[in-house]
Design brief:
This protein is an all-alpha fold. Helices cover 71% and strands 3% of the residues. Helix 2 (35-59) crosses helix 3 (61-67) and helix 8 packs antiparallel against helix 9 (165-194). It is elongated, with a radius of gyration of 22 Å. The two termini are 35 Å apart.
């Protein structure tokens, strides 16, 4: 047993230093996402990117001619779409992920203030936000619903014997136009991320600067 007077082991010093750095004052960093949450985001992003890329190869003649092998592209598109729910389902085993799902599902008075200021492009009014702002909550909810609708209409198109031709035609119409909308929304999401290096760093490393968190998410209390 180590006596109080004994020197602290070097590895313990490093561990203590890392912990202090994460919780250090204004210039320190705080934990935002767990490793599991970052894995879920990356896996979902990769599958969504594969869906969009293969869809483009199916619907844009220039890309279709360049890539060829339409049956393979269709197969990859279908399976990448069906697998989109897998990271989410596996992520339910993570307490941190479940806690963030609850945060995303709660919409309070401060979120309405944030949305009004964002829609009016009001840069004067303070935009209060918890761990996730109102825009992120709307985006997450809309995308989750869009993925479910895309999966349902896609299955009707793929397994042609499930419903009559009229329903398959309607499913194709919904699927195609919703796919275009998803592409536009994803482009806006990526553009927003490119303009916020600290948010990207949080998704890459799991931690963000304390000053950024206090500025962008003033109502967020890490650890709660």
């Amino acid at each position: 047993m180590r006596r109080p007077s004994d020197p602290m082991p070097r590895h313990a010093e490093h561990a203590g230093h890392a912990e202090r750095t994460e919780d250090a004052g204004p210039g320190g960093r705080i934990r935002r996402f767990s490793r599991g949450e970052r894995w879920i985001h990356r896996s979902t992003a990769a599958l969504m990117g594969l869906c969009v890329a293969t869809a483009a190869c199916l619907y844009l003649p220039a890309l279709a001619e360049l890539v060829g092998r339409r049956h393979l592209v269709v197969t990859v598109h279908v399976w990448s779409g069906l697998l989109l729910v897998v990271p989410f389902l596996l992520g339910l085993a993570s307490p941190a992920f479940r806690a963030d799902l609850r945060r995303l599902g709660r919409f309070g008075p401060h979120d309405r203030v944030w949305l009004r200021a964002a829609l009016r492009r009001d840069r004067v009014t303070r935009r209060p936000a918890g761990k996730f702002n109102a825009g992120q909550k709307v985006y997450a909810g809309w995308l989750a619903g869009a993925v479910l609708v895309m999966a349902g209409t896609g299955m009707l198109m793929w397994w042609t014997g499930l419903v009559p031709l009229v329903q398959r035609t309607a499913a194709t119409f919904v699927h195609d136009w919703l796919a275009l909308t998803v592409a536009v929304v994803l482009a806006a999401h990526i553009g927003k991320a490119l303009g916020d290096p600290e948010a990207r760093r949080g998704l890459r490393t799991g931690s963000v600067g304390r000053a950024w968190a206090e500025r962008e998410h003033p109502l967020w209390r890490p650890g709660e």
